[in-house]
Write a structure and sequence with these properties.
Chains A, B, C, D: This is HD domain-containing protein. Four copies of one chain form a homotetramer. Helix content of chain A is 49%, strand content 10%. Chain A has a domain at 6-219 and 357-397: Orthogonal Bundle (Hypothetical protein af1432). The termini of chain A are far apart. Chain A contains 19 helices and nine strands. With 407 residues, chain A is α+β, with helices and mostly antiparallel strands. Chain A is globular and about 70 Å long. In chain A, helix 3 packs across helix 9, helix 4 packs across helix 7 (135-141) and helix 4 (81-93) runs parallel beside helix 8 (148-154). Chains A and B meet through strand 1, helix 3, helix 9, helix 13 and helix 15 of A and strand 1, helix 3, helix 9, helix 13 and helix 15 of B.
Chain lengths: 407, 407, 407, 407
């Protein structure tokens, strides 16, 4: 069987599956699961074409990794075939631990467990199934390989992950101005003392990258309508968990039932059944449950299910100012009155909290290799004062509630 | 509330919601349902980015309708504001009756009912809810309006529907060479004696359009891997129906249960409950059920569910030659032996039949307005001998079966 | 004759010539001249596809003006048909006074004359030829029309001119990340008290616009190789002028000869012959002369002609630090020695001075209309500290000289 | 000096100069000359963005050659580094012998000399200058290398040359529907018994390629307005030659003068001066001369120069029917009367003849490798009857004449 496949990708044209091992990993149910997990959760409720999946992102990132490594080799960096394939695998699998709706449900289905940890567990399991073929991949992924730039390509402020997702998210949302200039940035990468650095000629491109990323936070990732939709979904799952744990019958797939019934810790994933169930859980388990709950006896579960299905979303206030306690109380009481619910139950019908760009803007450096041979952080290398402002973590506060209730 | 919205669309840039009525129709649950129905069923199993929905297609077609009408007005054709909006609504709603997975399940969930009939019923229902605001829309849709070119824009060999879907499918599959030159074709449209015609200067573009459409049949719409995946889904639904109708418990959403339990006729849709249930049925009901059936006691239901989820598809033979009876029998027996099933049950584990490009290539004309004033069919107007060959209905025969069984 | 033409444009798809008057203006020799003037001078020596002309830019800007006006009308701003056409004409003609190689030769061929003044003179001449049909166009162009936003669309910090040229330059250079999100910005424009303002929702887009513009300065407009090529061309023209004015025979077209022989002032353009000659002068007069001068007896004229033709460009040092006098002297003497020239003649074989982004970044405001109804400058409206840094005028110093001479 | 350059190309993103030798060839004046020769002559008079040059095409073709060779290597075909570079050089240089305005002036400036012969002479000269480094390149170019598929990649019915120019011409004209699906076709190429063949899976793509090519003939390459402009240019050059050869003073660059004065044969190019002069001749010599001739004493030379400059083109009749002698005579007499010219002189003010798609559609095969192992020509392999019709040579007859003269 010919395993050298070519896959159409509207973003890059064609993506080549470069080896038999990679073909087999892509065919594994764990990886195929990513076909059913949308990259941007409910963002398609704002940008209808944002239907792209973790599967596409993982393949795209693998493709870019190949281009990055080709550039480095062209510049004379020595990279072995084994390192090449292991880096491609590491980026291919870096997100394999993501659960349904990507980031949205991380904290309700799996409180306290980061998807990176699950990625590691699943990669480790794959390594066993493939008789150790992923050993170097695992080393690179957890940053225990001596040549640090491989890990930095997989995970750093300017990693291949970001380059693909910013580019891809911008493509599918149709927010053209979020374009980060992937090809140009890739061509500016180089390695200096085993660290990934950017050539001085690329400073304007890095500035542009930081700016585009910032645009994408506010215009896409933290768009207020998406925040509202996602909060509703979180409330819905929380409600289902409370009902199940209180002994009610709540239809759900086998895999979803496990995560509704129990609050699991990372240690539980050492049990093969749990990891296996997680390996079957995707967006469709959630959407399927929502469609089953439309006529559920629990009025709140049914109502939220219907609202999400029909995109009747909460109204939302999102801004820099803190939400006043008095407003929260006012909303709560209006809901209790309108829906005739108890105080505890009302809490599923509104939401408040903070959102931030944290996931996108951690504090690590982007290193620039100056013509002088010096390595500077972009903040020093750039002529723009306060370029750091482009990366800083901004928190915004939100309050969202049903449209038929007035503040 | 501002109802003049602008929606990002990677294909056309921005799509404007042109009126309050259209905004309200788009917000209706019937239309929102299209967000959850993929345009190309399981085609994303071959072209991973083909995730686009009927929702996007309907909006895109409305957008193109506006451009077509603007062109006609620019050429001096008189079009009233009412006709303008009604045409946009007619194309917006032309596919509203599509069921889950678009064409795939039409014949198993709703045998003998064409989606156009359901579109009409749903538009009629919307017309009631909106106090007759869709009266002209309905007339145009069913071709009872006197100015025939409006209907031809909605439904004919060169309608706005096709222009959007070919363009959009080509964009999202990444099959760039399927490009039909939408803008150019739109600019070549004109009206002659109330019929939609194409200016003689557009002959090469129509040839190209017919060729691109043909490319898309074979490269996308009837791709053998998609045929295989869709046949598996059809078998799965048939299996579920047999089990339900035989008294087994088969978990499913409320809406899906109705269509698994009963074999409905078009007349049944006059019952509000049935139409309402259909208005809640989308891809997620099917996918959700599949995820619930993974561990079902019926081995065949569980097996097909798992194979579809993990993309372990039937091997397929697809070609012009008829499938030999002896091969079918050989496969059937091999399956009976391999899976230890009865003859009747084995039939869910393979499939044979014909596929054709019929849905895309019916026999109607594309009229060309020659410089001489004559109107000719493209077959006469083109210098290409046998251009008709590009439109003819081709049937291919297929046989598909599990990979662990040999022919 | 049908004057409602449609023109293919890779950037926007199709551009429609919207009226007979505009068709006739486009057909006029003054406007056709723009076909022979490249938008970016010698930039194609760095970005080979940057071959686009002022003709394309002018049509593209007219197209965008139509979209901007449609948006404003959609938002309820009253715009008459006459204002609509006059605005399109104003932007169509705003650059008609540009000379060969756009900005490059402005200061050597026409010292002290701004191309805007020549645009005005040529528009005035066209107005006479078209019997006053451009009266409102002229008013809008020179900002004497009472509704100020029309002029602001033609010329301001966020005018249609910039939107087209940034978009177009980014398209043809292939510097994809310079994308300014034209459609989005256009959709954010509105009018408040007859002033052009941007909706608050567009703040991130304006930030992105300012950033993209900055990227384009450094990556394209002030690219060091382009600066070098353009300085060589300026030296060449200066040399030709000196020779002509010293009585030497220097072959050139009729039009070019006029500008080589005399140093003209704006007043001279009142003479019909001068304006007429200018209306015949384009890039081809310069390139044609260069090709004639390849074998000229004046060694410096011949050498520079050959170097430019064969792209044997000066080496260049470009940076924030001032060029030291001593370096200039060193270069001058090395050239005198290498080429055996007099001190005065050596000055044609190197160049030093400053370049800046001034032409792109003047100090005017971009006004944001806040939800509160307040109008703020982007610098106040943005959360980014020091956003002004993106617009500030930066000067860089350069020194360029032949490669066979060492510093 | 770093010779591993990356060049922006809007069509492919980035093009890498893969070796020092190729860098040096690209820097040679012969190759730099291609910067000043437009790929499509005067086509920009119809499609304003069709400004792209032979320089861009040559680099693009080299880039695609790299992709094609990578594909073949990926499929297991053995290709040495030397063969790889030689193939890239062969395609890079295949058009180096093109003269000003590409095909347009071939028959007037150099009657009876094919540009391929000049390409060979120039490559041979480069081979001498580079001490034999192009020996294998020359072998591949003239098809004397034993592994025939290398030559077929450079020159055949489905060569890299065509793939780039169709793709590039379609991109810059903005005729989007001419897209040939380059990436897909490249991925379908393979080698069978040292012959270049296309995998059976690519049949629809080849059909599409032939169709797209046909669209491009009629919509672009043989567009009637381009034919008219090019005939005018041919007449102008003929007029200049007659004047020069009759002893008149006709200003022109050194290089152009040679070709105006003498009628050269291929043998003359053995003289270094002639080859050298040709190596300096580009579009700018022609355009420069036209601008010098605007005020020439010869009324016909001046008139044609002015008409071409200002795009006041001949009216044209173009069609399948032969042009009647009587019409030609009528036009000739009307011109003689209108312009008061002699019969012989009138012939410069109109033109008649035939154009055909010959240059694009010669009779060679495109070989398809069937799953059965058989190799079939596309005409047999395709299900489309008469696919040959897409490739056949069609001749059209034209008559063009000044607009102020009536037929």
């Amino acid at each position: 069987m010919n395993k050298k496949k070519i896959i159409n990708d509207p973003v890059y044209g064609f993506i080549t599956i470069p080896s038999e091992l990679i073909f087999d990993i892509v065919s594994h149910p764990y990886f195929q699961r990513l076909r059913h997990i949308k990259q941007l959760g409910l963002t398609d409720y704002v940008y209808p074409a944002a239907q792209h999946t973790r599967f596409q992102h993982a393949l795209g990132a693998m493709h870019l990794m190949g281009k990055a490594l080709d550039t480095l080799k062209f510049k004379g960096i020595d990279i072995s075939d084994e390192e090449y394939e292991a880096s491609q695998l590491a980026i291919l699998l870096h997100d394999i631990g993501h659960g349904p709706f990507s980031h949205t449900l991380e904290y309700s289905l799996l409180p306290g467990i980061r998807h990176e940890s699950l990625s590691y567990l699943m990669m480790d399991q794959l390594n066993k199934e493939f008789n150790g073929a992923l050993a170097l991949t695992l080393k690179i992924f957890r940053n225990s390989y001596k040549r640090k730039f491989f890990h930095q390509l997989v995970s750093s402020q300017l990693d291949i992950d970001r380059l693909d997702y910013l580019n891809r998210d911008c493509f599918f949302t149709g927010v053209q101005e979020g374009s980060v200039g992937v090809d140009r940035i890739l061509s500016m990468l180089t390695v200096h003392r085993d660290q990934l650095v950017v050539d001085e000629k690329g400073i304007y491109n890095i500035e542009n990258f930081l700016n585009a990323r910032r645009l994408m936070y506010w215009q896409v990732y933290l768009h207020k309508t998406t925040v509202s939709a996602e909060r509703m979904l979180v409330n819905l799952i929380r409600r289902a968990q409370v009902l199940v744990r209180g002994g009610e019958t709540v239809p759900a797939s086998h895999a979803l039932s496990i995560f509704l019934t129990q609050e699991l810790t990372l240690a539980d994933f050492k049990t093969p059944q749990i990891l296996h169930a997680y390996g079957q859980l995707d967006d469709n388990d959630i959407w399927g449950a929502i469609k089953c709950w439309l006529h559920h006896d629990d009025r709140i579960l049914a109502l939220l299910s219907q609202m999400i299905t029909e995109r009747k979303l909460f109204r939302i206030k999102l801004g820099a100012e803190p939400i006043k306690k008095i407003h929260i109380e006012k909303i709560r009481e209006a809901i209790m009155k309108k829906y005739g619910t108890l105080r505890a139950d009302a809490s599923y019908l509104f939401s408040h909290g903070t959102v931030s760009n944290e996931a996108y803007a951690e504090g690590h450096h982007i290193n620039i290799l100056m013509r002088s041979g010096e390595v500077l952080d972009i903040a020093q290398a750039s002529e723009l004062p306060n370029i750091k402002a482009l990366s800083k973590i901004v928190k915004k506060n939100y309050l969202c509630w049903p449209k038929n209730v007035s503040l």
